[in-house]
Structure prediction request, 460 residues.
Amino acid sequence: MYQVFTFPQFPEERIFLSYFTNVASDNLEHIKSQLISANKEYDYCFLNTNHLVSLEHLRSGIYRAISNYSNSSMKAKTLNTEIIFNLSPVNNIMDSIKRFGVDSNCSNVIVIKVLKAGEPEDESFKNISELFTGEVESKELTDNVLFSLVDMPRFKKVYKLNDAAIQGDGTQGVWTRLAVSACQLRGL
Amino acid sequence: MTDHIVAQAQKILPNIPLSVVSQGAEALVFQTGTHPYCSEESLIHLSNASTFIIKYRPPKPYRHPKIDKQITKSRTIAEAKFMSKLSKLSIPSPDLISIDSINGVIWMGYKGKPLANGEISSLKNWLWWLEKQDDSASLCVSDVVEKVFLNIGALIAKLHLNEMIHGDLTSSNILLEENHDGVFEAVLIDFGLSSYSGLPEDKAVDLYVLERAVLSTHSVHSEIYNEWLLKGYNDMHLSKEFKSKQGSKKLVETIKRLEDVRLRGRKRSMLG
Ligand SMILES: Nc1ncnc2c1ncn2[C@@H]1O[C@H](COP(=O)(O)OP(=O)(O)OP(=O)(O)O)[C@@H](O)[C@H]1O
Ligand SMILES: [Mg+2]
Prediction:
């Protein structure tokens, strides 16, 4: 199961997104090692769900990454890493990979692939589940799913929101606003 | 002139329908129905999920191109950061959606709701609209108006108590948004001249600018309006939240300064 979307300003960049649950930690360790050795079969952006509060938050990071790609102002070497970097409020690529990339303790994994202008339709995304072993399940990624999975204390810590003047527990909307501004302003 | 700038903006923002809302000295403000990265309204966590504002600072041909780029970039970033700081403090202001500092573009949430006459719900337009109603004598100084001014005074106090200065407080840079209970809540916009300062002088000038703006654009009732503003400002300083944070001391210092600033203003106007 996967979704495909584009952003109005960048109609040629097609974004493919899948979401898997129940991914075993040895499977995640394996994926991590393949990413480190730059195995072409693993040329995707893998994210854990611990610090993602909503789809708007996730998309704001993908958007900034694609904008940077299109202005030739990417800081990371690949668009996959650029997406991870633009979800992070911290101006350090290694740190953002550690927080937002594959985490062997988080069994929920989002996989993203951006097909750039002129790149042929990628059949591999249809078979993306082959990268996962065991009892993994492919599900639709929704706002509710993200909000139920986000690890609030860790999210607040990463985005430095423990001192924010928020009433009560805060809503998904409130946390989205704060996370989006932090992502959009990172490094500026 | 505007056409040319609109064309420039359109080039930076392909496929985004733009309609001009306002042209100021420094920026062109557009309204659009397109969100940059969320296509379905259900994904958008904003009070208005169908209209958005784009503030665009075009290149200034009279500045050296290199210096111009730096100025545009730093002002755009400063304004977006100020907005983000305000959301963190829960001080009502537009929500940041995205920023393209190189091109001088800030994409933000639309605040307020057009008035019955179709105009933007700024404090200025709202008061002028009230003045035009049949029953204007009682409408202009009603409890609703009083609440709005108290609320604005409190908002500015919150800003100042966090050592933030708006820098351009006018009745068009304050928008009114109706909340769920039908109460008008003030929203601050336009942080092009904003800064950070704890000095009573800077806070006093901020208040004075608004006082003058109220006097010149809403002169009939300006005295009572300014009184309400200051009451809201006072009350917030003495509130539970800020009393322990030197609220009353800061209040005394700022109000004392405000008197000096008013005096300076009067002297200056006497000299012409
Ligand atoms: N977030 C917003 N929601 C609704 N309307 C807005 C918003 N931001 C700006 N506007 C409208 O656009 C006008 C101009 O915006 P702003 O004051 O930020 O620009 P400016 O170029 O600094 O203007 P000026 O120089 O005239 O003060 C505002 O007076 C208001 O009518
Ligand atoms: Mg203005």
Observations:
- Residues 94 and 109 of chain B are 5 Å apart (CA to CA).
